[in-house]
């Protein structure tokens, strides 16, 4: 009886392994295409949560073609137009005239204004932890840096439409991607 079950189990393992490889190859192809571009744009709803509060922003991400990017607040209306610029080396975040209080980052160093640049960096260069199908569409888990994990869900057209950023096991940022050129 045990020998009769062994062959089907081995075949199932091989088939499941083949699916994972196809999913990984699909993502790697997408990622490779992004690495060749420096003109990405996206609009997204970003929600930040910590133990104290939750806040929402509508943000526009625009790459400058030289390795840097701008993240502009579209909503809430009170701070519409505030922009954060990240330099090509990724180390400077400069606010014009207004500082936006987003509450405690829980020690993670992650903020709504940094969520989209982190997502773009992870899609290009993050370590691929796993890839699978969810509701028929690709989903991936990426690790762009120690202690940070991104789960990204793609739509049927292979465009990212949702991402969740986790810091040390706790989900802190949630991104619903709207219009984009990737």
Structure in words:
The protein has 182 residues and is an alpha+beta fold. It has a single domain, classed as Clam (outer membrane lipoprotein receptor (LolB), chain A). The chain contains 2 helices and 10 strands, in the order H-E-E-E-E-E-H-E-E-E-E-E. It has helices spanning 2-35, 112-125, and strands spanning 41-49, 54-63, 69-75, 83-86, 93-95, 127-134, 137-145, 148-154, 160-167, 170-180. A 10-stranded antiparallel beta sheet has the order 5-4-3-2-1-10-9-8-7-6. Strand 2 and strand 3 (69-75) form a beta hairpin. The longest helix is centred in the first third of the chain and has 34 residues, at 2-35. The relative contact order is 0.18.
Please name the defining characteristics of this protein.
182 residues; alpha+beta; outer membrane lipoprotein receptor (LolB), chain A; ten-stranded antiparallel β-sheet; 2 helices; 26% helix; globular
């Amino acid at each position: 009886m045990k020998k009769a079950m062994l062959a089907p189990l081995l075949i199932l393992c091989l088939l499941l392994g083949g699916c994972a490889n196809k999913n990984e190859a699909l993502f790697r192809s997408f990622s490779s295409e992004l690495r060749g571009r420096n003109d990405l744009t996206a609009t997204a709803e970003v929600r930040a949560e910590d133990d104290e509060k939750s806040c929402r922003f509508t943000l526009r991400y625009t790459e400058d073609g030289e390795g840097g990017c701008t993240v502009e607040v579209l909503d809430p209306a009170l701070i519409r137009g505030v922009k954060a610029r990240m330099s090509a080396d990724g180390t400077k975040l400069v606010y014009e005239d207004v500082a936006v209080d987003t509450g405690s980052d829980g020690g993670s160093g992650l903020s709504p204004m940094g969520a989209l640049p982190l997502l773009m960096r992870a899609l290009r260069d993050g370590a691929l932890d796993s890839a699978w199908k969810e509701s028929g569409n690709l989903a991936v888990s990426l690790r762009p840096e120690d202690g940070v994990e991104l789960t990204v869900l793609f739509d049927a057209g292979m465009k990212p439409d949702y991402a969740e950023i986790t810091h040390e096991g706790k989900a802190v940022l949630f991104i619903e991607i709207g219009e984009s050129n990737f």
